[in-house]
Structure formats: C-alpha cells, structure tokens
Amino acid sequence: MQLQLREKIMRPSKFDYERADSLSSAVEMLSVSEGMAKPMAGGQSLVPMMNLRLARPNNLVSIRRLPELQDIQEAKKTIRIGAAVTHAVLEDQNSADVTGRYLSYVAKGIAYRAVRNRGTIGGSLCHADPAADWLTSLSAIGAVCNIQGAKGKRQVPVEELMIAPFVNALERNEILASIEVPKLSATARWAYVKFCQKTGEFAKSICAVVFDPSTGVSRAFLGGMDGPPLFLNETSNQLGSADPETMLKVAKKEIRSKLREVEADRLAIHLTMVERAIRRIEGYK
To answer: CA spacing 20 to 30 A to 1: which of 49, 119, 121, 187?
Structure first.
C-alpha cells in the first residue's frame, strides 16, 4: 500500500502537451490557458516539481526547438543569449566567451554534465531558485532579460527577475526570450564562489563579483539566501579603490547590517564566500 501511494505521488497530474512552432505561437498558447500553462525547454527543474505535484500545469508548451531561443548573437557591447541555450553550450564556449570565460566558468559548476546538456539558462532564471547559479552571476555582470508577451516586448534586469523564491516577474502570457549580457574588457576581473556540501547540490551561499574599470562595471552580489540576490552596494563602491583588507571590513560590515536576522552559521558561510571572492578578484589565493 505504501509503495503504491509513493508511486502515485511521484507521477505528475494530467496535462496536455503542445509544441510551439514560433515564439509568437507559444505566447498565444499561454494567453488562452488562463494561467494554467507552462513553457518548457529543458525541463530539468519543472518536471521534478510536476512529479512531486508541486507544479500542476494543465498544459505544457514546448519551446525547446525554437531557433530564436537558441541563438547566441554578438553585438558591439553585449552578447545576446537565447533563453533555450543549454548550460553545456555556454560551458564549451571558452574561446568565444566575450566575458573573460565568466559564463563558461559559472556554467561548468552547475550540477552534472547530464543536467547541463538539457538544462537551459532561461529555464534556470525563470525557475527563480535562490540557490541557482545564473540569478546571482548574471546579476553581478549586469545582464538584462528580454521578455516577449501578448502586450509586446519589455526588458527586466536579471537582479529584478525574482520576486520571491520560485516566483518571477513574468506575466502569465510572457516568455523569457533572451538574456543580454555585457561584454567584459581585457582588464576586467571577476570572481564566482559558492558553497555546496557535495557536487551537484544547490548552493547554500554564492558570491559573485565583477569589476571592469574600462566599462565602469563594479558589482558584488550575494546569493543562496531566502530571496533574490542581495546587491552589496557599499562593497561594490570599494572595488578597485581600496586594499583587500579594507574591502573585507566594508563587505563584512555591510552583510551583517543587511542580514541581521540570518542564523549565525549561515551568516558565517556568507561571510566566508564574500571573503574568498574578494581575495580572488584582488589576486589573492
């Protein structure tokens, strides 16, 4: 009896499946569903939630094979990444990564290769898990989401995409089409560190720091918390203008001030991740 119950729980509720042939048709399918449809590309986050009945869409709209969601286009100052581009594609972009291998480094640390082969950058962002990699890392570099819906197109900074854990800023009839990522200059420095108890596990703390004096980018974010990535404003202002020890004092003071209610053990992990990131970006081991 217990085995039968477990098998029933691990199966999703009944749903229909449609394959969109264009981004506009996918938007239309979502528009007529009264909020009960979900777009799906890789399905690495959505399908497990459906199996656990934590998500119960009555219709899945497949957008995985849409060409406009799989392109990577380079412009003068940015690189536009289609939302259905997989982590593995970004991991393997070492020679063509115009972010100084920042994107490749982040992608390589996501779960396992089997997951990276199917999981997509857009799916990860829309899933809005505070412990996921792209939310924090793309916030730090100043990336922007290009969103398309029934009312047209709009842009949302990645740092504003998450409203709450597993809740994003997209309307029911909107789809994340691409992510606009600023290029980094040859003088840029970055650090991305996270704490996981074992490989493939979601992070308990993340710190991403990007400093590019040539373009004026100076941003530090803390992730892996109970909500959206935290922008460390005072720390960001100190990047490149203070010695590492001064920066550490500023960062730790700012984190303690903004995370007053966080448990002592979690706070200690956050402080350690920030310290590692700052020392790495300043050339310390």
So the answer is: 49
For 158-186, the pLDDT digits (tens) are 999 999 999 999 998 999 999 999 999 99
Separation in Å, CA 32 to CA 45, 126, 138:
24, 20, 32
Query: What residue type is 95 in one-letter code?
Result: S
Which amino acid is it at 136?
T
End-to-end alpha-carbon separation of the chain, Å? Answer: 56
* Residue 49: C-alpha distances to residues 38, 174, 234, 246 (Å): 12, 21, 38, 44
Q: What amino acid is encoded at 27 in this protein?
A: V
Residue 285 pLDDT > 50: no
Q: 144-149 and 174-182: which strand pairing?
A: antiparallel
Measure Cα distances from 223 to 59, 65, 123 in Å. 32, 31, 18
What is the value of pTM for the model shown? 0.91
CA distances from 161 to 130, 135, 156, 240 (A): 11, 8, 7, 28
Q: In what order do the strands lie in the sheet with 189-195?
A: 189-195, 205-212, 217-223, 230-231
Q: Is the dihedral of CA 231, 237, 239, 244 positive or negative?
A: negative
Neighbours of 96 (CB within 10 A): 11
Q: Which two tokens stand for residue 218?
A: 């100076």
| Cβ–Cβ under 8 Å, residues 221 and 136 | yes
- Distance between CA atoms of 81 and 69, rounded to whole angstroms? 8
- What are 279's two structure tokens? 């020392």
> What band does 3 get if pLDDT is binned at 50, 70 and 90?
very low
**Encoded amino acid at 62, one letter:** S
